[in-house]
Amino acid sequence: MPNEFKQVLDRIAREKAPGPSPTFSVLHVIHSIELIAEKEIGRGKLAEKLEVGEGAARTIVGRLREAGLISTSKGGCALTDVGLRLWNEYKLIFKKKVEIGKNELTLANCNFAILAKNCGNKVQSGMEQRDAALMAGAKGATTVLYKDNRLIIPTVSDNAVRDFPETANRIIALLQPEENDVIVIGSANNPRKAEYGALAAAWTLINSSD
Fold first, then answer.
1. Was domain 4-89 assigned CATH 1.10.1740.10?
2. Cβ(100)–Cβ(112) below 8 Å
3. Which of 62, 141, 168, 202 qualifies as a cystine partner to 161, CB 3.0-4.6 A?
């Protein structure tokens, strides 16, 4: 059965409305909820953090409110109980997101890594994750599996600690993967595109029904 948050957030992102096509994606919706979960935030600040226009931020806020995920007040946007439950469900799978900096696995200067719990069976060659990151504006994505107490990079390395010790040990220290976990690293020349690349790559791991 598909994860509820996947269905809800995809639906919010693709809802049709009069006027021009929306200038945001499900990645912006996810990041909006993440920012609102951290602390109450106004629409203007949200637009700035998302790097979208005021109109797009207004639409995102409106859709999140209509879906019952946030409430709005003079103080800004805050998660409702329903929104918090949905966010906690998301966090059960996407446990950690960290900036890992320039490294020997990637060519770009900015790199974000996301840990996806127990998603190793969803990975084939890593190409789907790379393509999703490219579509999100990143330079690419690197997919790493944790299996049999080893970090494995499909088609590249069956033991990343041996072949890329500096980065592999950094990944283990920062993300503490367990059996069948996946780490996706989004890479770009600026932090926001790297972060969205990682989010897009990670999102493919729940793109089909279990």
1. no
2. yes
3. 168
Mean per-residue pLDDT, 162-170: 95
What top-level class would CATH report for the domain 100-206? alpha beta
Burial 95-117 (b: 16+ CB within 10 A, else e): bbbbebeebebbebebbbbbbbb
CATH 3.30.1360.30 positions along the chain are 100-206
Q: At 61, which helix (H) or strand (E)?
A: helix 54-66
> Rg of the Cα trace of the chain?
17
pLDDT for 16 beyond 70: no
135-157 pLDDT, tens digit per residue, is 999 999 999 999 999 999 999 99
C-alpha 47/C-alpha 197 separation (Å) is 19
pTM of the model: 0.88
CA geometry: angle 35, 80, 3, nearest 5 deg: 80
Region of 124 (left: φ > 0; alpha: ψ -120 to 50; beta: rest) is: alpha
- Residue 11: the pLDDT is 87
Contact by Cβ (8 Å): 28, 34 = no
Please state, in angstroms and rounded to a whole number, the distance separating the CA atoms of residues 185 and 108.
Answer: 11
**Which token pair is 64?**
């999140």
Q: Is the pLDDT of residue 124 over 80?
A: yes
